[in-house]
Task: structure prediction
Amino acid sequence: MKYRKRFKRKNKQRKILVISICSILLFMTVGYAAMNTNLEINAKGNVIKKNTGGEQLLETVDIVTTGDGLYKDSYEENTYTYRGSNPNNYVTFNEESWRIISVNTSDNTIKIIRNEILLDKPFDTSSNGRYNGQYCNDNSNGCNIYGSTSTLYDNNLNLITTLGREYNGTKYTLPNKESEISIYLNGEYYNGLDAEAKNMIKEDAVYKVGVLYYNNTSIIQDMEQVNAAKWKGKVGLIDATEYIKASTYTNCLDINSAYFKNVCSNNNWMYLNDYWWTLTGYSMNISRISWFIINDGSMGTDMGVYSNLGVRPVVVLSPEVKIVSGDGSSNSPFNLSL
Result:
């Protein structure tokens, strides 16, 4: 009888122990799942989340309507753009200081630009061999289109060989070789990036490379024209409209306002006291001239063959890239990981 009572007591103790262990394991499993699903660490603005790419950034950063910060783009769908004099859009990439231009929610990507000029280089040169008697009909002056017949697409991303330019009823075909600046950025420069940076770049990113007329009177016209041609590749430059939209100064809202007028240096984080290229050509009827940024903040045009201007590389990050720390300020830039 005593043995039976003692056995029952031990059996009861075992049951209590098993239940306790199971409860602890269940609590730990649920807690870990909850932490893994929605991990958010806020320490002086440092944020780590499970979501990646543009989605993570939009969950991390407040969207603003005035002042410096990330804005919902009024002119381009599925896009958020950093604007103002000095928003918190700094990011470390390739062990260098870069800044975030925009977020695209359609593919969850983040577009970034090198914070400083990399080097000075012509947009294109007469020796690049792009002249084929067609679009670039002046072999001595280079060509203003960033891509070639194998990398240029229309607004619906269908491959194109012509781009609107007509002369005496003939529609001229596009060059069959990349611009010199594109060859450099997607060859020698890309190959020199560190392995982690290369893995972070979206290889078939889309850049707007349509050409702009200087006398446009609204950014709507600007956007329609830059969207007329798209280039697919790894490394590009900004298009002219991205520079315009980075300013919150209302007088810098179209190419006509920016053309040889220093209004766009106001409230514009992209501004540098230097000369540097965009990838936007100037007018379909003048195929040798491209838009560039002037050291006073205005925009001008020049023949790519004659001018060694600054190059600020632009890349689109893979949607798999994560922000692992930082608040985007110059003292605490966003740090990235795959």
In short: The chain has two domains: 1-37, 52-338.
